[in-house]
Amino acid sequence: MDLDDILGPRPGDPLAALLAQDLDRLSVAELEARIIALEAEVARCRRRIDGAAQHRASADALFKS
Question: Which InterPro entries is this protein grouped with (predicted)?
Fold first, then answer.
């Protein structure tokens, strides 16, 4: 179990704030721009995950020798 499951989201958590935003007041163009920005952020997160996995694999290989 994660601490967030017990305590809930941290105050000022940007992800929680993003998910709570009211989309009803946004235009189609604004929603499309939001999707583009979020897709770019997903790609950035995936690159970070890949980099961390490669770093971990390198460290594991170094210490297994």
Answer: DUF1192
